């Protein structure tokens, strides 16, 4: 597999570069960073702070290197993610995108691109998080008439709230209940704000360097069930992203999910 990493200086991109560089059968051919960064033109090993060079440059134009790869991994920003999608579709390259914060119309563009390329839009590439999703689905189906609240915690540079993972949890709960998340979601509370029966609550904490933490509360009378995943670093997500790239590299065009990559 010949791989391009978009955003190799980012908190996820650094780990993706490190893990991919250590995998047999993977060659990193380039990295892509934003225009104007002082590391453009340097080796991706240096940019990702691996302590070594690996012979792949970091450029600021994906189009200039895209024909050298067969898979692109992008965990950068919404804006760069949309540019990566357009380039991947134009050049027939597989794309794994893990950025969050896309609008519904932008998400639709990823699904539309599946008519031409293999593509995966994955809010969370941790295997244990995806096992957590299955547990939440079962709990939502079996717990009956209880209140559900979702808490996500991330570092103080996280841009979107709730997180993409929290939104996915909400969708799982709503689907299990046969309701619309758009109609039932409540985002934080302030002042006089009584809980309406059937609401799905979202709460987001941001601080320090918290990598990722999600808890779903199923609250009944005199009892509650909590399903939680904590991440100690972004390495688990990066490893899953590289696993997903290996999974998708030889797949035909279509929209794939991280659950398929993990066999879940």
UniProtKB/TrEMBL annotation:
Keyword field: Amino-acid biosynthesis, Cytoplasm, Diaminopimelate biosynthesis, Lysine biosynthesis, NAD, NADP, Oxidoreductase
Catalytic activity: (S)-2,3,4,5-tetrahydrodipicolinate + NADP(+) + H2O = (2S,4S)-4-hydroxy-2,3,4,5-tetrahydrodipicolinate + NADPH + H(+); (S)-2,3,4,5-tetrahydrodipicolinate + NAD(+) + H2O = (2S,4S)-4-hydroxy-2,3,4,5-tetrahydrodipicolinate + NADH + H(+)
Binding sites annotated in the UniProt record for NADP(+): 37
Active-site residues, Swiss-Prot/TrEMBL: 154, 158
Pathway of action: Amino-acid biosynthesis; L-lysine biosynthesis via DAP pathway; (S)-tetrahydrodipicolinate from L-aspartate: step 4/4
A Pfam family reported for this protein in Swiss-Prot or TrEMBL: DapB_C
GO cellular component: cytosol
Assembly information from the UniProt record: Homotetramer.
Function, in words: Catalyzes the conversion of 4-hydroxy-tetrahydrodipicolinate (HTPA) to tetrahydrodipicolinate.
Name recorded for this polypeptide: 4-hydroxy-tetrahydrodipicolinate reductase
Organism: Mogibacterium kristiansenii
């Amino acid at each position: 597999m010949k791989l391009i990493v978009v955003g190799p200086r980012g908190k996820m991109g650094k780990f993706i570069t490190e893990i991919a560089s250590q995998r047999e059968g993977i060659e990193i051919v380039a990295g892509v960073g934003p225009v104007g960064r002082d590391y453009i033109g340097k080796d991706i090993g240096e940019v990702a702070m691996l302590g070594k060079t690996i012979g792949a440059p970091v450029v600021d134009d994906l189009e200039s290197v895209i024909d050298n790869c067969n898979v692109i991994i992008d965990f950068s920003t919404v804006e760069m993610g949309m540019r990566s999608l357009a380039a991947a579709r134009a050049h027939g390259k597989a794309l794994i995108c893990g950025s969050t914060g896309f609008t519904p119309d932008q998400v639709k563009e990823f699904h539309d691109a599946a008519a031409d390329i293999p593509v995966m839009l994955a809010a969370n590439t941790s295997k244990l998080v995806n096992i957590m999703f299955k547990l939440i689905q079962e709990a939502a189906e079996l717990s009956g008439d209880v209140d559900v609240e979702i808490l996500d915690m991330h570092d103080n540079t996280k841009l979107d709230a709730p997180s993409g993972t929290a939104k996915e949890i909400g969708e799982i709960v709503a689907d299990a209940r046969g309701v619309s998340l758009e109609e039932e979601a409540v985002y934080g509370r302030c002042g006089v704000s009584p809980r309406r029966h059937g609401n799905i609550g979202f709460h987001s904490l941001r601080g320090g360097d918290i990598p990722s933490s999600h808890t779903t509360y199923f609250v009944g009378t005199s009892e509650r069930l909590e399903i939680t995943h904590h991440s100690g670093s972004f390495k688990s997500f990066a490893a899953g992203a590289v696993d997903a790239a290996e999974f998708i590299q030889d797949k035909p065009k279509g929209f794939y999910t991280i659950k398929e990559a993990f066999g879940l």
